[in-house]
Amino acid sequence: AYNIHVNGVLHCRVRYSQLLGLHEQLRKEYGANVVPAFPPKKIFTLTPAEVEQRREQLEKYMQAVRQDPTLGGSETFNSFLRKAQQETQQIPTEEVVLEVLLSNGQKVKVTILTSDQTEDVLEAVASKLDLPDDLVGYFSLFLVRETKDGAFSFVRKLQEFELPYVSVTSLHNPEFRIILRKSYWDSSYDDDVMEHRVGLNLLYAQTVSDIEHGWILVNKEQHRQLKSLQEKVSKKEFIRLAQTLKYYGYLKFDPCITDFPEKGCHVIVSAGNNELNFQVRLPSEQIKEGSFKVTRMRCWRVTSSVPMSNGPSGSSPGKSEVKLELAFEYLMSKDRLQWVTITSPQAIMLSICLQSMVDELMVKKSGGSIRKMFRRRVNGALRRSDSQQAVKSPPLLDSPDASREPMAKLSSKLTSVSLRGISHSSSANDVGANDFHGNYAFEGIGDEDL
């Protein structure tokens, strides 16, 4: 059997024959010219070298399928991974109570099936909170790890190919929780959410929590004003004031390492406002701050390396064994592109943040409506359980203008995140062009500038 990992954690275990069955089903539905080539069957028993070769081919195959917007978003592919996840963790389908946290620590208990997918659980939480249907898509479920000071370290946004109950219980660690949080970056969308009482309460709770944990910077005078608004229970005014503060709406990541401006610098990365913000501690102990705009990133990639020497092959992979890196190519000045690398266990989460910022920019640029985009996705989730029809809605656009078709094609390419294993070096030259995640919001830069 082959292990499939998500963020270095075992998702499921599958046999070659099961993957072959998935391949044949995808070919039947989408045609042989759309589905990538599958590693061939062998008549004789495989040698150890052939086993490793097949594993590499299967890894490439799974990544190619996942990165294709049609195949990776298909119900066939996602339900295969959900079913395999449930079978691997040996969790029978039954009714359970799942605890989902809100930003203020409040617990929402929902009765779900262990086999319910991410969107079903999100619907159940929204229903329990009385959050209206057209606001559900503004929020997402995140897998987090609770730190000793009560803050949260974000592991990943729960994806459509996983079962939240199985994902959290299979970690066998009470520090891992599921939290509900807003999942958009542009604070102008706060207006839509604040129109409804429940949306306003959720946004308010998240803002208060982010201030308490030091994610949003507040000086003494601002703190006094915020406290006064809190005492008056002026939630809208509180959020309006918070919107003007530094790092409002940012996700803060755990301290990690970067090679910018020089190798081995300690850095705290925050994602928000269409940028990655760096607070870097230089070897001289000086703290420097700077931002990398997503529109100036030409492409990025996530790479993973697993040291082969750590422990016997049968031992379970420890957290330290999988080394994840996010690298992006950045337009530093008119004619200078440079690679910047972040080494962090949260590299995939960082990549997902970049991707969703780009998706949002593309929708805005086309004049599309984020509300309609989300609503369609929510309706898709409601219909999906009744039929086998895939109702995946990638971030396509609602604008009726002439540019819609090419824009939609571009934005559909944004759904891939490349994860590739590298055993030793991870310099830009070692990675083929297919491993890059091109950024179509990299704009306004002519060929002569490059």
Main sheet summary: 10 strands, mixed
Strand content: 15-25%
What is the CATH homology-level superfamily of the largest domain?
Pleckstrin-homology domain (PH domain)/Phosphotyrosine-binding domain (PTB)
Distance between the termini: 47 Å
- The tally of domains stands at 4
State the CATH class of the largest domain.
Mainly Beta
Overall geometric form? globular
What's the total number of strands? Answer: 17
Q: What radius of gyration results from the CA coordinates?
A: 22 Å
Task: Kindly report the oligomeric state of this protein.
Answer: single chain
Low-confidence segments, given as residue ranges, are 310-320, 375-434
Helix proportion: 25-40%
Mean pLDDT across residues: 81
| Structural class computed from helices and strand pairing | alpha+beta
> Could you please say which CATH topology of the largest domain applies here?
PH-domain like
Describe the fold and architecture.
Residues 310-320 and 375-434 have low confidence and may be disordered. The chain is an alpha+beta fold and 450 residues long. It has helices at residues 16-30, 48-67, 69-72, 75-88, 118-129, 133-136, 164-169, 190-194, 197-212, 220-231, 235-243, 347-365, 370-384, 404-412, and strands at 2-6, 9-14, 95-101, 107-113, 139-146, 152-157, 176-182, 251-252, 256-258, 265-272, 275-281, 287-293, 297-305, 323-333, 336-343, 419-421, 437-438. Strands 8, 9, 10, 11, 12, 13, 14, 15, 16 and 17 form a 10-stranded mixed beta sheet that branches. Strands 4-3-7-5-6 form a 5-stranded mixed beta sheet, with helices on both faces. It starts with a strand and ends in a 12-residue tail after the last strand. Helix 9 crosses helix 11 (235-243) and helix 10 (220-231) runs antiparallel to helix 11 (235-243). Helix content is 36%, strand content 24%.
